[in-house]
Amino acid sequence: MIDEIYNLNENKKTIPPIPKDATVAMAYVPYQNDDNLYSSDHGFVIGTMFPVLNKPFKGCGDKK
Protein backbone atom coordinates (compact mmCIF):
# COMPACT_ATOMS: atom_id res chain seq x y z
CA MET A 1 0.00 0.00 0.00
CA ILE A 2 2.73 2.46 0.91
CA ASP A 3 4.47 1.68 -2.40
CA GLU A 4 1.34 2.87 -4.21
CA ILE A 5 1.39 6.21 -2.41
CA TYR A 6 5.13 6.83 -2.38
CA ASN A 7 7.54 5.90 -5.12
CA LEU A 8 10.02 4.10 -2.90
CA ASN A 9 12.21 2.89 -5.77
CA GLU A 10 13.92 6.28 -5.86
CA ASN A 11 15.99 7.87 -3.13
CA LYS A 12 13.34 10.44 -2.27
CA LYS A 13 9.67 9.89 -1.54
CA THR A 14 7.33 11.38 -4.12
CA ILE A 15 3.60 11.17 -4.61
CA PRO A 16 2.55 10.43 -8.19
CA PRO A 17 1.01 13.52 -9.84
CA ILE A 18 -2.16 11.63 -10.85
CA PRO A 19 -3.56 8.57 -9.03
CA LYS A 20 -2.96 5.20 -10.69
CA ASP A 21 -6.68 4.45 -10.53
CA ALA A 22 -7.82 7.80 -11.97
CA THR A 23 -11.50 7.62 -12.87
CA VAL A 24 -12.69 8.80 -16.27
CA ALA A 25 -14.48 12.20 -16.22
CA MET A 26 -13.05 13.16 -12.83
CA ALA A 27 -10.99 16.30 -12.38
CA TYR A 28 -7.59 15.94 -10.71
CA VAL A 29 -5.10 18.51 -9.55
CA PRO A 30 -1.58 17.06 -9.82
CA TYR A 31 0.47 16.82 -6.64
CA GLN A 32 3.49 19.09 -6.44
CA ASN A 33 6.68 17.17 -5.76
CA ASP A 34 9.02 20.05 -6.49
CA ASP A 35 11.50 20.80 -3.70
CA ASN A 36 12.56 24.14 -5.17
CA LEU A 37 11.06 27.03 -3.23
CA TYR A 38 11.39 30.78 -3.31
CA SER A 39 12.43 32.57 -0.15
CA SER A 40 9.50 33.62 2.02
CA ASP A 41 10.06 37.32 1.21
CA HIS A 42 10.18 36.75 -2.56
CA GLY A 43 7.26 34.29 -2.46
CA PHE A 44 5.13 36.79 -0.55
CA VAL A 45 5.78 39.51 -3.15
CA ILE A 46 4.97 37.35 -6.19
CA GLY A 47 2.19 35.33 -4.54
CA THR A 48 3.65 31.81 -4.57
CA MET A 49 6.48 29.87 -2.99
CA PHE A 50 6.73 27.52 -5.99
CA PRO A 51 8.68 28.64 -9.09
CA VAL A 52 6.62 26.30 -11.32
CA LEU A 53 3.47 28.20 -10.31
CA ASN A 54 4.93 31.63 -11.05
CA LYS A 55 2.79 32.54 -14.07
CA PRO A 56 2.50 36.34 -14.15
CA PHE A 57 -0.65 37.65 -15.85
CA LYS A 58 0.35 39.66 -18.89
CA GLY A 59 -3.11 40.79 -20.05
CA CYS A 60 -3.15 40.60 -23.83
CA GLY A 61 -0.64 37.80 -24.16
CA ASP A 62 2.37 40.11 -23.88
CA LYS A 63 1.16 42.16 -26.87
CA LYS A 64 1.53 45.93 -26.79
* Rg from Cα: 17 Å
Oligomer: single chain
Question: Helix fraction?
Answer: 10-25%
Through-space gap between termini: 53 Å
Contiguous runs where pLDDT drops below 50 for at least 5 residues: 4-8
Instruction: Sum up the overall morphology in one term.
Output: flat
The counted number of beta strands is 0
Summed over residues and divided by their number, the pLDDT gives a mean of 76
The SSE order reads HH
Q: Per DSSP, what share of the residues sits in E-state strands of 2 or more residues?
A: under 5%
Class derived from helix and strand content: mainly alpha
Please outline the major beta sheet. Answer: none
Number of helices: 2
Describe the structure.
The protein is an all-alpha fold. The chain has a domain at 1-17 and 33-56. Helix content is 17%, strand content 0%. The protein has two helices and no strands. It has helices spanning 2-5, 40-46. The longest helix has 7 residues, at 40-46. The protein is flat and about 40 Å long. The relative contact order is 0.13.
